[in-house]
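Let us work through a complete example step by step.
Step 1: write down the sequence.
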Amino acid sequence: MPDADHRATQAAIVSGETWVRFCDTLGRAGQQILRPEAPVDALTRAEGWRYLTRLARIALEMHVEYGDPLYPGFVRPSHETAKIGADNPDNLYLSARLDGRHDYLVRGRRGSVHGLYFATKSGGYADADGRMPGSGFLDGRDLQVAADGTFELRLSTQRRAGNWLAMTVETNQLLVRQTFLDRAREQAAELEIECLGAGPRPPLDPIALHDRLQRAAAFVENTARLLADWVQQFRTQPVNTLPARDQQMFQAAGGDPNIFYFHGHWALDEDEALLVEVAQLPPCDFWNFQLDNYWMESLDYRHHRIHHNQHSARRDAAGGVRLIVAHRDPGLPNWLETAGHRAGTMCFRWIGASQTPAPQTRVVKLSELASLAAVRGAGDGL
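Step 2: predict the structure and record it as tokens.
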């Protein structure tokens, strides 16, 4: 006989209470857009409401459609039209649900993407604390790949021969980052995943659907709250700066251990430009800088140049770089567009860097840029 909780959940499914709870939680998520410290202009508010719809799309894919860890599939938790937490415009993100009590097999074709990184995680943004600590990490350069570009990767709590990625019994997610220098020329890795020994897929389980709907709604509310808290912290620092922060905060929320982040907030008048400078770029696997809106969504990189990386940015003769953020094109290298925004957040990241120097920032008048370029000399950059 079903126990009392089982019967109560069945009753909620039949009566519609399951749906009411789901909608109520989504409704509460709107409070994060109306926080007293959030800007009240129409664009920021509109982007906030759109942001919640995007979180809902991600959540339903991740926790409902592909929420069964016995029958996982890869979803894209951030992409061109659904974005979370300063999503990297140079990344293709993939995520699959796991259960650490089972073993998994990833089959793939390596492709030519510059960086390929696999990480197992526990927790998640659907939990109230938003913690997503890592349980295993594998750099794609350490993969054993066949001559035809294919590979297999085992995920388990016990070490396996060949390509292996560690899990714990608490592991519930595989997160893959594919990092491009030039999307137009690089080929993404092709990946599929299966839970070993899962057997034939059964029909929809009503109890599981109830739980997954509630988890999806919690994901929306908690993600919105967590990242609004982050932005509130960023705004306690001076505007137009990129201070170093405790990396544990970012690692605990799902950042890979090989990434070092600088987050800040920006605001510019029409006649101003923000210069982001690194005097000497250290050896690294990757770096980039991006502009985001208030909600930590990357600006629309499909139609605007809102980020640069080591491939797209022009260096100066000394091996450094100067990036220019401005509302209109100054006619100089390394311009980043504000895409109709007067303010927002921003992120600089190093991946696999031998050193992680803090980018230096300063605001100048647009009219001063030409003279600054002349003073800098005949290098390739500004």
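Step 3: interpret the result. The chain has six helices and 16 strands.
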